[in-house]
Write a structure and sequence with these properties.
five-stranded parallel β-sheet, 3 domains, 23 strands, Alpha-Beta Plaits, seven-stranded mixed β-sheet
Length: about 550
């Protein structure tokens, strides 16, 4: 097949235009084009009001070799890449591999292990996704937090109640992201995620997809154990190797290969790993607030008159500002037409994040506006000092919100003027169980307040209306990525512990659903490669 890129067509082109553009670009007769599929559809919105669609297509044509030779020097015409995933061949080890955590990383790892015939055991501290949904809604509706079953913990992991954005900036030369997407489509995601440039799924579908994938893993002989936490490691030998996992139900599971995919909020597990001597480093993350605007304002600022076009959907944005105090301020996890959600996993803390449904039809757009923090500058006191830093500000947000899981909020105009908000304006905040108008500087470090105050007017210059007085800021956004990184060897194992495979966001190798899924595949492949650690050590 031949891949053709950079085919630019007007937003409202008719059904025949794409085929005509392919034939013209290739310089062939229509009869020589046997078939084509869209590999990617994006848009170029740099000229507001004159947005064009940009396609990449894969074509089946007569005599591909001579056509490619003829276009040898045309960068937009090339052989189509081979994106098919080839499952590695696995031989069963003495014990079944274990996956700790059923987020996107753990679930993709378990799926690959199951497809390879290794019948993995998945240990997940939270509940199955339907029960978890009930617990999550209890916080949002009644201020009742269940520490083991919430937005962060439970089947599907942190991204289950989310916008389900599926883009990632990670380098992916083996097209593992394509494998993740294909599995998601098999599980019920819309097929367009395979080709649109900024795919998303939305919360509602994610929940049933997670169940479908579980059914496949179980059908292949895998097994899930819910409501059980890994609380300790059993090791032996020198070099040390894993021999078992201590579980919260008081039992020990014999295990010589375990993928550790616990996400960025498993703070108790990080502490357990530190005490067990698993090598780890403090790493940078970010802290800030969520901002909410009317979605119509963002649509208009980005797309002008073409806002609301079905092929464009609700508009998103991505903004960065380098503040004069040396901090970078950037938009994070933007959710068009969505809601701000309560995302704490620990009692008496307030943490924000964002989610939406596939339709992205809610009134407000929201995004984190966050400021980078690093161990060197902001939490130098030990490998888990970043966790203490997060907890401090999450607790401050809980207090500023009034102590009942309401979040502190402030109008942008008041935030910029340095005065507390006493009421809110036209933008109605979506955060549940509610917000308390106050002063957000009570729950943010000074450098972050200063940097965000500088960034908002700078963002206004890029996106008209961004610093509108009634836009609402809700705090505090702290769980942007893991505060630690667990180093791993070229074989994907902890350098201090053979048989432990740190993976996903919690270990510092992913920053979103797609990259976590990709890392899960990698981890599964490493486990398959290390199918018998006992022999390789002996
Ligand atoms: C509200 C929200 C919205 C988001 N929106 C998006 C988005 O639109 N797009 C995007 O790409 N990303 C989004 N993210 C981020 C994304 O969810 C994460 O990057 C991703 O889930 C990380 O995957 P993971 O598998 O590494 O970890 P997680 O998803 O965090 O999964 C870890 C799992 O391990 C379990 N666990 C933890 N400790 C233990 C233990 N000791 N024993 C057993 N089980 C344990 C947890 O219960 C959890 O289920 C969002 C996150 C949140 C919270």
């Amino acid at each position: 097949m031949i891949r053709l890129t950079e085919l630019r067509l007007p937003l409202d082109h008719d059904d025949t235009a794409l085929r005509a553009a392919i034939v013209t670009r290739l310089g062939i007769d229509d009869s020589a084009l046997h078939d084509f599929t869209i590999a990617r559809r994006g848009y170029d919105a740099r000229k507001r009001g004159r947005i064009v669609l940009v396609y990449s297509v894969d074509c089946v044509v007569d005599d591909e070799a001579s056509l490619l030779a003829r276009h040898e020097n045309t960068p937009s015409i090339m052989p189509s890449p081979d994106t098919q995933y080839v499952l590695p061949t696995a031989s069963p080890g003495a014990l079944r591999p274990v996956v700790i955590g059923a987020g996107p990383c753990g679930v993709m790892a378990a799926l690959i292990l199951a497809q390879a015939g290794l019948r993995p055991i998945v240990i997940e501290r939270g509940k199955i996704v339907r029960e978890r949904t009930i617990d999550t809604f209890a916080l949002w509706r009644r201020s009742e937090l269940t520490p083991e079953s919430n937005v962060q913990f439970g089947e599907g992991g942190a991204g289950t109640f989310s916008d389900g954005k599926l883009y990632s900036g990670v380098s992916d030369p083996r097209h593992l992201g394509r494998k993740v997407m294909e599995e998601f489509v098999k599980a019920g995601a819309p097929e367009e995620i395979l080709y649109v440039s900024k795919p998303h799924i939305g919360t509602f579908r994610l929940v049933s997809m997670v169940e479908h994938i579980r059914a496949e893993i179980e059908a292949l002989g895998g097994e899930y154990r819910f409501g059980v936490r890994v609380d300790g490691l059993v090791t032996e030998g020198n070099p040390r190797r894993l021999t078992g996992l201590v579980l919260s139900d008081g039992t020990t599971l014999e295990a010589d290969r375990a993928i550790l995919a616990v996400g960025h909020s498993a703070r108790d597990t990080f502490e357990m790993l530190r005490q067990a001597g698993v090598p780890m480093q403090a790493k940078p993350f970010s802290i800030g607030v969520r901002i909410e605007h009317p979605q119509s304002l963002i649509d208009c600022a980005r797309f002008g008159d073409q806002g609301g076009h079905p092929l464009l959907g609700a508009a998103d944005y991505k903004l960065v500002h380098h503040a004069s105090n040396g901090r970078a301020v950037y938009s994070f996890c933007m959710c068009p037409g969505g809601t701000v959600v309560a995302a704490t996993s620990e009692p008496n803390q307030v943490v924000t994040n964002g989610m939406s449904q596939y339709s992205r039809a809610e009134r407000n757009a929201n995004a984190g506006i966050v400021v980078d923090v690093s161990p060197e500058r902001d939490y130098p006191d030990g490998v888990l000092a970043g966790v203490a830093f997060q907890r401090h500000w999450e607790r401050a947000a809980f207090v500023a919100g009034g102590g009942d899981y309401k979040a502190p909020a402030q109008r942008v105009e008041d935030f910029l003027a340095g005065r507390p908000s006493t009421t809110l304006g036209d933008v109605v905040p979506s955060y549940k169980p509610g917000v308390t108008p106050t002063d957000l500087s009570l729950c943010l470090p000074d450098f972050a307040v200063q940097a965000i105050r500088e960034a908002l007017p700078a963002f206004e210059r890029k996106l008209k209306g961004f610093s509108m007085g009634d836009a609402v800021l809700t705090g505090v956004e702290t769980r942007t990525s893991s505060p630690i990184r667990l180093p791993r060897t070229a074989e994907g194992q902890s350098p201090g512990l053979i048989g432990l495979f740190p993976a996903g966001e919690g270990a510092g190798y992913a920053g979103g659903i797609l990259s976590a899924g990709i890392d899960g595949i990698r981890a599964a492949e490493w486990v398959i490669g290390a199918h018998d650690t006992r022999q390789s050590i002996g």
